[in-house]
# Entry
Amino acid sequence: MQTRRKYRVNWFRVISIGLSCYFVYLVIGQQHQLNAIVNEAQAVQLQLEQSKQLNTTLKAERDALNDPKYVEKVARQEQGLVKPGETPYIRAGEK
# Structure
């Protein structure tokens, strides 16, 4: 007759494996959060660079608007304004 072997649970091993799994889970979760934060920081940095470029362009436009010749050019091209005594004409394809 075969005798059944009693298996004893080694609680130290079970708890050690459980804690190890838990710490691995925590590390993976934190790494995922860190990656998300890094990606967000890169997106914000890109947006900042684009905003700086736009700011530079707008400052140049503001400075150009202080020049009367530039204002006259814009008024003629975009608004179709003419000086007294001039005859306005419309090119083909324009409004």
